[in-house]
Amino acid sequence: MSIFHKYVYPLYGFDILNHLVYDVYHTVPLNVVKNQVVRALDLEMLDKAKLDKQIENFPWTSEFKDGRIPRQLGKDCKGVDYWKAESFEKFSFPMAECVMESQVTNHMEYEIMPLVSRLTELHFHDGRNG
Asked: Residue 99 sits in which domain range?
């Protein structure tokens, strides 16, 4: 039983499903996107050296440069451990499709990537602009 339910429900009928807000900013980038990136690296679907070069040369617009952008992974691949939610967000959209298109050869894996990118775009860009 949840502590919220145990102590707060008797006070005013607290319902965890209706009274808590989804934290989309952390749920999408730090769960969905991060898991996809780490998984692709672990399964060696992405060449780390090539990805580093693409991260270094990615043509960021001034809008996207405002804030954290993804850092290179380095030889030990610790770069992804230092990425924050905003880095994963910007990797997912607009970078992932550009970077992963040339590296991911499995058709099923490639179909997942644009869906995650569109989810990120919807939540963080189009949704804010109506």
From this structure: 21-126
One digit per residue, the tens of pLDDT, for the chain of length 130 reads 566 667 777 877 777 667 666 676 778 888 889 988 998 889 898 888 999 999 999 999 998 888 899 989 887 667 788 899 999 999 999 999 888 888 888 888 888 888 889 888 888 877 655 5
Residue 97 to residues 11, 19, 21, 92, 112: CA-CA distances in angstroms?
Answer: 49, 36, 30, 8, 10
Is the overall model pTM greater than 0.85, yes or no?
A: no
Number of domains in the chain: 1
Contact status, residue 84 vs residue 70, Cβ threshold 8 Å: no
- 82 within domain boundaries: yes
Residue 59 lies in a domain: yes
